[in-house]
């Protein structure tokens, strides 16, 4: 039986408000507002993520240890990154090494940006003796099909002259030979689990290049080049492995890194928010709670298709606990967010006195949202 309204603690489990607040700060601010209105209430802060940017921060907030690592950024220049480790599990966030935010000066490199640093982070995790690596995809700067990632783990990708391919998706058009080399030894039997919230295939109109390439600076000519390179890579990978996974759901994630993870690393793929909630111990945190509060920067139609707040709402419903949402913007009509399982939804834009305040005063307004939710949903 779910707790009565006067019993239990509150779990605050938001995703980041992209471009404004990290998930941990959103959680802290909402929790502060709740405590102000209902003093003495136990409020547990558990920021979440859906496998993309913010995954590492969510793991660290949940008690994982931060392990620094200097790796190659998307253009090959070194960057200071990190992974998270707890027990026999490591969390690797692609965006830490190969994300758009890692591009020098913010200048896009659609044809040459690669994923080598992601492979280095995986290698670092394996060297620590873990048994499982959770790989969070999202926010990638390149469209190289994960070629750089597997090169960092020992796979040799050669052109017709026997030369190793340089980074980036454009170079894949010259691919002539794949030598797995010491890949199996490099992974050492470690399980790779991909946290992914998209189901795009590698190629075609819904593929890695067509859908996500423009976000990474690719023009129409670049998209043709990238598509040709990914197709060439997929052909040769199928020849080496005996399996053609170019159509697998999620293969097109993160510029095709999902494809290489599935086809060459033997990874399994799970919806990002489900995997992260398991990893963060959400079921245990919500047990006996009287309310869960979640949220993200924009609560919209995409939220309902596997984004973090929808996953939190579903998990809370299974536990018989009411759930409310706080968002920077609310683009769902009330019948829509209620049908998704939310007892209440508050937008910072509705609390702002001036246009733009929801961005510049987001932290303060998140506290106000916490106060309002506490007043509405936590009587006594």
**In angstroms, what separates the terminal alpha carbons?**
20 Å
Q: What coarse outline follows from CA principal-axis ratios?
A: elongated
Q: How are strands sequenced across the largest beta sheet?
A: 3-4-5-6-9-10
Number of beta-strand segments:
13
User: What are the low-pLDDT stretches, counting only 5+ consecutive residues below 50?
Assistant: 1-6
Question: What count of helical segments does DSSP give?
Answer: 16
Strand-and-helix sequence, N→C? EHEHEEEHHEHEEHEHHHEHHEHEHEHHH
What's the average pLDDT? 94
Any chance you could write out the topology, listing elements then pairs?
Blueprint: E1 10-12, H1 23-37, E2 43-45, H2 55-61, E3 65-72, E4 78-86, E5 89-93, H3 94-98, H4 116-127, E6 132-136, H5 147-152, E7 156-158, E8 177-179, H6 183-187, E9 191-196, H7 208-212, H8 220-241, H9 257-263, E10 268-271, H10 272-280, H11 282-286, E11 291-299, H12 308-318, E12 323-330, H13 334-339, E13 342-347, H14 348-351, H15 357-360, H16 362-377
Parallel strand pairs: 1-2, 1-11, 5-6, 6-9, 9-10, 11-12, 12-13
Antiparallel strand pairs: 3-4, 4-5, 7-8
What's a concise summary of this model?
The protein has 380 residues and is α/β, with parallel strands linked by helices. It is built from 16 helices and 13 strands.
């Amino acid at each position: 039986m779910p707790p009565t309204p006067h019993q239990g603690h509150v779990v605050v489990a938001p995703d980041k408000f992209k471009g404004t607040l990290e998930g941990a700060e959103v959680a802290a601010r909402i929790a502060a507002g709740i405590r102000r209105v209902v003093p003495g209430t136990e409020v547990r802060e558990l920021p979440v993520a859906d496998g993309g940017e913010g995954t590492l921060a969510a793991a660290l907030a949940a008690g994982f240890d931060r392990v620094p690592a200097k790796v190659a950024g998307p253009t090959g220049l070194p960057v200071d990154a990190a992974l998270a480790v707890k027990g026999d599990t490591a969390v690797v966030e692609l965006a830490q090494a190969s994300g758009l935010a890692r591009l020098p000066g913010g200048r896009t490199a659609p044809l040459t940006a690669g994923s080598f640093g992601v492979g280095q982070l995986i290698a670092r995790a394996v060297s620590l003796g873990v048994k499982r690596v959770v790989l969070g995809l999202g926010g990638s700067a390149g469209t190289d099909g994960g070629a750089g990632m597997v090169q960092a783990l020992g796979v040799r990708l050669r052109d017709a002259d026997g030369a190793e391919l340089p980074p980036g998706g454009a170079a894949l058009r010259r691919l002539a030979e794949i030598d797995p080399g010491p890949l199996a030894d490099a992974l050492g039997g470690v399980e790779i689990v991909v946290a992914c919230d998209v189901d795009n295939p590698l190629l075609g109109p819904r593929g890695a290049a067509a859908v996500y390439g423009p976000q990474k600076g690719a023009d129409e000519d670049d998209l043709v080049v990238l598509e040709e390179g990914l197709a060439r890579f997929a052909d040769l990978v199928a020849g080496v492995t005996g399996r053609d996974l170019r159509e697998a759901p999620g293969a097109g994630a993160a510029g095709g890194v999902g494809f290489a993870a599935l086809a060459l690393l033997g990874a399994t793929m799970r919806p990002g928010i489900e995997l992260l909630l398991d990893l963060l111990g959400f079921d245990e945190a919500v047990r006996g709670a009287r309310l869960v509060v979640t949220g993200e920067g924009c609560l919209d139609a995409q939220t309902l298709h596997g984004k973090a707040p929808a996953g939190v709402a579903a998990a809370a419903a299974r536990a018989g606990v009411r759930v409310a949402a706080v968002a920077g913007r609310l683009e769902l009509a009330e019948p829509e967010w209620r049908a998704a399982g939310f007892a209440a939804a508050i937008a910072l834009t509705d609390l702002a006195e001036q246009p733009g305040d929801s961005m510049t005063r987001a932290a303060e307004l998140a506290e106000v949202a916490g106060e309002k939710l506490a007043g509405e949903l936590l009587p006594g």
